What we know:
By secondary structure, this protein is mostly helical. The chain has helices at 2-18, 35-50, 59-69, 74-77, 83-94, 98-119, 124-142, 144-161, 165-176, 186-193, 197-216, 220-229, 237-254, 262-284, 288-295, 300-317, 322-342, 355-360. The relative contact order is 0.13.
Amino acid sequence: MLTYWLMFLLPALAALMNETQRTRAVAGGESETPVGAWIAVGIVLTLLIGFRYEVGGDWFSYVFILDNVAGAMLDEVFLMSDPGYQFLNWLSLELDWDIFGVNLMAGAIFSIGLVVFCRNLPRPWLALAVAVPYLVIVVSMGYARQGVALGLAMLGLVALGKGGTGWFVFWVFLAATFHKTAVLLLPLAALAAAQNRFVAMAWGVGSLALGYWLFLEDSVEKLYVNYVEAEYQSSGAMIRLVMNLFPSMILLVWGKKFTFSDAERRLWFLFAIISLALLGVFVASPASTAIDRIALYMLPLQLVVFAHAPDAIGEESETDVSVPLLGVLGFYGMVQFVWLNFADHAFAWLPYRFYPLEVMF
């Protein structure tokens, strides 16, 4: 458990040391922290994610996926479900890296996406601390495929915030090769970037139709049966949806004080509205796993809102910015404590085991 707390406390300490003054996102939005420090963060995250040993609820499922790829030719791999992830398995087997090669490559992609995303926020260390309890520990170490998809999606969201609609589409399509549900993000590009509502609607429907044809057409029936008809229940889904409720409400109340470009403002307000809608659908639907998996793509909203909130709330209430900053860190520290000690499946993450140390000792 110590490893998880160090993962949270180090960026939290950096936020307290470096981000207690009022700040504003600069044009381009990149952190003033030396790039070398963020490269080190990416490397450490990659190693912790990649060399975990029997950590995560789906650990043995991913070992089974790796075994299924053994002996397959490269052209066969690209015809499999989630070909991007299958390619990582094939490459790891070719290099004789076993499951750790898959996890290292997946961890690197996720970590790059997270670091780039955080560096483009006004309080990047605070954003990283917010990401650790769930986005890093639970998603990247538990849902490997969707973790990679989220890492790529975050690269796309950074590009979209800077007006790079084409790059957003590219990153989302690439993310969909790791987890098909990523295509659901495609309409966001149209809604966030297009000024004309009819152009936005046409663009959104067209991109979603293309994504459906490329990635979902052959498996939509299976997904429907597994997630909806079977009424799969995702333990803790309600809690995770409520966690998105708080930043959504903060954004809707104080969003005008956030330093957003016009495209960013439309984008993150959409995220807030979708998050609230998912909570409403969850109450009315028994298929909590399906909603939970979609809600995972809304997690970057928490990083964005809480990286802006200390300034917006502090300015509104004329309080010292360190007060809301400490509030955010305290809240996510509590989230991590509760999850590690009381979550139904936390046992699958405990204790954290690092493969090189397992081999040595």
